[in-house]
Amino acid sequence: MDKTKWYVLYVNTGRELYVMKSLQRKGISAAVPLENRVIRSKGKWTTKKYVVFKGYVFVNLEYNWLIYYEISKINGVIRLLGGGKSPEPLSEHEVERLIESTKLFAEPSTVKLFDGGYEILNGILLTFKDCIKSLDRHAHRAVIETNIAGKPTRFTLSFMTEQTLTERKG
Predict the structure, then answer these.
(1) CB count in 10 Å sphere of residue 121
(2) Structurally, how many domains does the chain consist of?
(3) pLDDT, position 102
(4) Rounded to the nearest 5°, which phi and psi values hold at 15?
(5) Full domain range(s) for residue 51
(6) Rg (alpha carbons) of the chain, rounded to whole number
(7) pLDDT tens per residue, the chain (170 residues)?
């Protein structure tokens, strides 16, 4: 029977991928969701890889102090969320929503904009549609707020519009 659970490791921003690779070399399952963010460069819309949850690495392990001691030696690791003697694992709902939706981060969502509103047509924003706090039409960014290990967390996801899709193809 598998006794592992998903936890959130709080790390120095910018060290997420380094920490993930270091954990994987130690045989610890780790994930850092990446997004192909839509950016405007030289008058054209392109995509570039960005870490979705800055400062977080998701780890799947059977927690004990020995494991934590090994993890804490990695440069850039701050602590496990929930901290103390018993860190808080992610709930089943959080695991389903955050870890399993990682594949959806690969491509930006498509959003149809119209006067007074928007409609999400596809992608990861459909998963977080009830958590959208704001939508910047000009920058093509949506601010999402959700709980991660019981802590309210904000992050940004990009999106494309039908016009953006046309410009990228043309």
Answers:
(1) 15
(2) 1
(3) 79
(4) -105, 5
(5) 5-169
(6) 18
(7) 578 999 999 999 999 999 999 999 999 999 999 998 888 888 888 888 999 999 999 999 999 889 989 999 999 999 998 766 678 889 888 888 877 677 788 888 999 998 889 999 999 999 899 999 999 998 999 999 988 887 888 999 999 997 766 665 55
Q: Say how many Å lie between the first and final Cα of the chain, rounded.
A: 53
* CATH number of the domain within which 72 lies: 3.30.70.940
Rounded to an integer, what distance in angstroms lies between the CA atom of residue 146 and that of residue 124?
14
Dist. CA 164–CA 109, nearest whole Å: 11
CA distances from 169 to 32, 44, 138, 142 (A): 29, 10, 19, 23
**104: Cβ contacts below 8 Å, ≥ 6 apart:** 123, 124, 127
